[in-house]
Amino acid sequence: MALPEDVMSELESSQWKELFDKVDTDNDGYIAAGDIKQLAASAGREITDEQAQVNFQYSNVLSSLDPSFLCLFLHFCLLFYLLQVISIIFIQFLVIFFSHNAD
Fold it and tell me: Domain 1-64's class?
């Protein structure tokens, strides 16, 4: 049984709020470079202040983009990845085919 949209959006909203609260370690209502560094440390990965700042800047750029553009960009990345995989498989097929025909 599907949930009504208003219930689903409330559930999603509360889940995003919960995730935001976990990342916003200093509880200032913003996710800053220090919060990203703390998040990385809690995941067992130490990063420098500079790395945290770069990640923060990238997240700001991504959050300012139009969601439809992000969706299109992700589809393009997936297509590009799939084309790489297909070309690798095709090259392997050619190598096997020509190595058997060379004998």
Answer: mainly alpha
